[in-house]
Write a structure and sequence with these properties.
30 strands, 9 helices, Ubiquitin-like (UB roll), alpha+beta, 5 domains, 44% strand, 15% helix
Length: 647
């Protein structure tokens, strides 16, 4: 009797299976009251299906099962309908292509899919109207009227067609312009007679505001007034910039960042509470912390302080997209198959901004393992102290070399803009060397323990590593290892350049010379990814001219390497490119290699090729196919390499 009573009075329940996880809780809150009120399963299922219909997933099916007052809904979601066509009516000043780019609901195409668009998004139709209106405002059509898009669903429910009616109206130009309060040497970047572009004028106003803020006037204000002349199709504009006082920072705080301690960000910065307000330096510091991988970016928000010349600064930061960055490169070498270099790194170990990296090279012919830790801002906001332990085993054509050791490095920027920097490294290695022939392996009579140091000077203003698109890096380094008879001097340069029409250029050059009496493990070779793409590693170098292994590469004491790349950004993600590489290693004399098995031009071996760069923000991909231009015996016709990761 009691059990029957409990069954009768049990509250109605609802279970939803197959719904999108992001929608599940909202759907449950919306449908449970409806089920309790009506106990109409068909009505509840219809309401659930309507939610999916409104999101453009027209083929979604919903089944239901009822047991007493318990309802179970089984959802089979369909894909969103694609946008088959977008038609504009009444437009003349702006083309269909220009208007289409202002919408979220874009025509389905390969480029749209790369940007995550091309699906029908009913909830974005209002935003489409706003975007189209802003596109007209940018051209001076300030009274343009945009009607909400009409949606026509195909009979098979897999696609839709959109139709947008536009009344452009007349174009308005900027009439009278009066601007006061400009900083000395600054001009307003908009002139009378130009189309009254709301976005263009706003950009010009913001440029003047930033000019005052860079001069320390953090609380600059803009007073504006406008007047429309409908008969003359013009708008008059009066602007008055009130700079306010030169400000000092009363308080500076980070907010919105959770993956790194805000105290670490403050310690790494060169501007603090009590300093004069410097907007340019704040922007530089945000960019530097972003390049270190600690944040994605930050917005500067200022507010009045306790005194007229005091300002409170809040840096509203965005967390980095991920804390750990995997990377690996792969190439194919004869006898080794696929060679993988694996790497795992983080710029924010233990939330302290400590840089950690671990690398391992997986191959039967060469082994590498290292762990390194960098501690930034130990003595100064622009310095870095690093430690590394490593175990490296590498097989050259005639030599097996293994080193196990430890190194410490220290670097520091020399200028306020962190372009110039100096660095020094001290390392201790234990070497185990042996040469091999067809019949025996012979150990080298070399010192087992060696101390080496290096000193360097560099200039770097690139925007960021693999994803960089502009800037340059120059580096000069001196290496000293007296116990192995090795002293070396090297110079390298890299230039990234944005070119017209969406092209991007990359150029690199390096030259190195070391003492001729250095140990054989320090011999220089060319070939493989990073030097001469299209050639196998250790194959482009001076060779034995006599003996049992005549023709085997033995390496040189000097080298030259350079390369050019030309890429075209199809969009913000996909960039195909072509490249040309040249380089060689020499012994005793520059640009002479009598024992070379291949024809050289200018003393160098050459290769060309093509590749594809996917600029994904979390995990970029780089594919390369290299072909030797000066191909000799044993050189491949084409060599493929792949790089994945942020390093």
């Amino acid at each position: 009797m009691l059990l029957a009573l409990l069954l009768i009075t049990a509250p109605a329940s609802l279970q939803i299976d197959g719904a999108d996880p992001a929608l599940h809780e909202r759907l449950h809150r919306m449908l449970l009251p409806l089920w309790r009120r009506s106990l109409d399963a068909e009505r509840v299922a219809k309401r659930l299906r309507s939610v999916y219909m409104r999101s453009g997933r027209f083929l979604t099916e919903v089944e239901h099962e009822v047991e007493g007052e318990a309802l179970r809904l089984i959802v089979s979601p369909s894909k969103q309908a694609r946008i088959q066509s977008v038609r504009f009516l009444g437009n003349a000043a702006l083309s269909d292509e220009e208007l289409g780019k202002a919408m979220f609901n874009r025509l389905d195409s390969a480029s749209a899919r790369l940007q995550g668009l091309g699906n029908f998004l009913p909830e974005a139709l209002t935003d489409d109207v706003t975007g189209l209106r802003q596109a007209y405002f940018a051209k001076g059509y300030i009274f343009a009227k945009i009607k909400p898009p009409r949606v026509y669903v195909d009979p098979d429910l897999n696609a839709v067609r959109l139709e947008v009616s536009v009344v452009e109206g007349e174009r308005f130009n900027l009439g009278k312009l009066a601007v006061t309060g400009l900083p000395e040497g600054e001009r307003f970047a908009f002139a009378t007679g130009q189309a009254f572009s709301v976005s263009g004028i706003h950009a010009a106003v913001e440029k003047v505001r930033l000019a005052w803020m860079r001069r320390g006037h953090a609380l600059v204000q803009v007073k504006e007034r406008s007047e429309v002349d409908a008969a003359g199709n013009s708008v008059s504009l009066w602007l008055d910039f009130v700079a306010g006082p030169l400000c000092r920072i009363e308080a500076l705080e980070w907010v919105g960042v959770t993956k790194v301690e805000t105290a670490v960000l403050s310690r790494l910065m060169r501007i603090h509470a009590g300093d004069r307000y410097d907007h340019g330096l704040l922007l530089e510091e945000i960019g530097r912390l972003r390049s270190l991988g600690l944040i994605m970016g930050a917005q500067i928000v200022t507010a009045e302080g306790a005194k007229p010349d005091a300002v409170r600064v809040r840096l509203v930061g965005q967390d980095a997209m991920q804390k750990w960055y995997p990377a690996f490169t792969m190439t194919y070498l004869p006898g080794e198959g696929a060679v993988l270099l694996l790497q795992l790194s983080t710029p924010n170990f233990l939330g302290k901004g400590i840089r950690f990296r671990g690398s391992s090279w997986l191959s039967s012919e060469r082994r590498l393992f290292d762990l390194s830790i960098g501690v930034p801002a130990l003595l100064h906001p622009l310095d870095n102290l690093g430690f590394e332990i490593h175990n490296r085993d590498r097989k050259y054509p005639t030599l097996q070399a293994q080193s196990r050791g430890f190194s410490a490095s220290y670097g520091r920027s020399l200028d306020r803009r962190r372009r110039w920097s100096v660095f020094t490294t001290l390392g201790i290695d234990y070497w185990d060397l042996s040469s091999f022939t067809a019949s025996e392996t012979v150990a080298f009579d070399e010192p087992n323990v060696g101390i080496q140091t290096s000193y360097g000077l560099s200039y770097d203003d690139r925007d960021s590593g693999l994803l960089g698109t502009r800037g340059q890096r120059l580096s000069l380094s001196l290496d000293l290892a007296p116990s192995h008879g090795r002293n070396g001097l090297s110079f390298s340069a890299q230039r990234l350049q944005r070119l017209p029409f969406g092209f991007r250029g990359r150029a690199k050059f390096s030259v190195r010379q070391q003492s001729s009496g250095s140990g054989p493990q320090f011999a220089l070779y060319m070939g493989g990814p990073g030097t001469l793409r299209g050639y196998y590693a250790y194959t482009v170098a001076p060779r034995l001219s006599s003996g049992e292994f005549v023709g085997l590469p033995i390496g040189g004491d000097r080298s030259v390497n350079g390369g050019l790349e030309l890429g075209y950004g199809l969009n913000s993600v996909l960039e195909p490119f072509v490249f040309l590489d040249g380089g060689n290693a020499f012994r005793d004399r520059w640009f002479e290699q009598p024992s070379s098995p291949r024809r050289l031009y200018g003393g160098l071996a050459w290769s060309w090729g093509f590749g594809l760069l996917l600029r994904l923000p979390v995990l970029p991909f780089r594919f390369e196919w290299g072909r030797p231009l000066t191909r000799g015996p044993g050189d491949p016709e084409m060599l493929f390499s792949l790089g994945i990761g942020t390093n």
